Amino acid sequence: MAQPTPGARPAPGAQPASGAQPTPGARPVPRPQAPRPAPPARAPQSASTARPTPPARPTPSARSAPPPHPTAWDDAHPSPLALGSAPLPEYGTGSLADLLPTLAAGMGVPGTSAAIPELAPADRNCVFLIDGLGWEQLKAHPEEAPFMTSLLAASRGGTGRPITAGYPATTATSLASVGTGLPPGAHGLPGYTVRNPDTGELMNQLRWQPWAPPGPWQPYPTVFELAHRAGVHAAQVSSPTFANTPLTKVALSGGTFLGRLSGEERMDTAAEQLAAADRALVYTYYAEVDGAGHRYGLDSDTWRGQLMYVDRLVQRLAEQLPPRSALYVTADHGMVDIPFDEDHRVDFDEDWELKAGVALLGGEGRARHVYAVPGAADDVLTCWREVLGEQFWVASRDEAIEAGWFGPTVDERVYHRIGDVIAAARDDVLLIASEREPRESAMVGNHGSMTPAEQLVPLLEVRS
Asked: What share of the chain is helix, strand, coil (3-state, %, to 5)?
């Protein structure tokens, strides 16, 4: 959500938590009736070239076709909002969680599978993630981003289409999906702030505050770890600030982390790392497009300047690709500017109806987790639907899980991290909390929900 901060950061991926893998194409059941087996232990990194066999990841063939559900990203919607009108992320075929497993499978990494069928294999793969640069924002600014605009037709394997971030469309959740190759219901970072069931406190998953043990919180190996074990050269090139953060540990660990301050240094280093081995998987990252959007908005000169700068970075990296390489440029979410008036910003801290029966308010302004006091969950759901139901999709925890918002399944350890009530904005509206979240409540640009502006992200491709 908010611009990445030193207390938190990146993410890469891995696999579901039970011996019987969740079927990625199937809708989740509201809640497992029996305890799930413990997830596989995270294997320690090793410089050895031995290739231990990682736990099998779900394959596309195992994914049953989802039941009829709207996936068209258009303006048609009923009012009041029906939960079935929320367009689902393309889990299993075209989401951020499917990217690294697809690339790793193309390099022969055991335990991974090619979930995005449009992508052709390459021996050397680089993912450049630009924080906050959604598909719609990129398409709307061809003059500021001429090089990336020239690649729009090559997005998603030459189909000219975007992929989806996953819900919620926020940085901590998306980076964990990228790195682990899992949807939020499996990796367990289902929001900007969520309740820690062990302590009862809200945990900021971007800054990792209050601290919780990273391994139990996200127990699956990342795709980088799987690739490293398989003899693939794995590297992450990002700000030195993120080298040892808990979010990096749970989402992007595996292989080598290389801290570089400037964007130009990151591009040059990423190209060097691609050329360092016959098979390579490299990740690099740039944060300030997101930061400028949050602080100044998408129409600001500052945001446009950041877009111009990152466009030159993409071109710089593309021009240095070694042979047999594929570069993929993507993002963790898009963004929308929300006006500063009472019609567009509802203040939870000043609304007695919305506060009634609520113990904790989590998530962020466009993707709320609401935790009720014991016994009040049904009343809170009814009230929130009455107050916000024409502008937000408002669901109970079980309804959101059954609808597939967090992926095809939700692990038992993740179940109570999700709010008793979930509210996802459809309109250009924000549910702020001016007293308890003054910094977030003052942001111009926001994200988190399932609208096209937030959910759709590019998958631009350059091959050498």
From this structure: 30, 15, 50
β partners of residue 164: 95, 456
Give the total residue count for the chain: 464
- Give the integer Cα–Cα distance in Å for 349 and 344: 15
Neighbour tally for 341: CB within 10 Å: 7
Q: Global pTM?
A: 0.85
Cα torsion angle, 327, 463, 164, 133, sign? positive
Order of all β-strands in the sheet with 124-130: 256-259, 233-238, 280-286, 124-130, 325-330, 460-463
Contacts of 274 (CB under 8 A, 6+ apart): 124, 126, 280, 282, 321, 322, 325
> Which of helix, strand or coil describes residue 353?
helix
Spell out a b/e string for 30-61, using b for 16 or more CB atoms within 10 Å of the CB, else e: eeeeeebeebbebeebeeeeeeeebbebbebe
pLDDT in tens, 148-196: 999 999 999 999 999 999 999 999 999 999 999 999 999 999 999 999 9
Pairing verdict, β 367-372 and 358-364: antiparallel
DSSP letter at 333 equals: -
- 364 contact partners, CB below 8 Å, separation of at least 6: 1, 2, 168, 170, 191, 192, 193, 440, 446, 447, 448
Please return the burial class of 333, using the count of CB atoms within 10 Å of its CB with bins 0-12, 13-18 and 19+: buried
- Cite the DSSP H helix spans in 125-206: 135-139, 146-150, 155-158, 171-180, 184-187
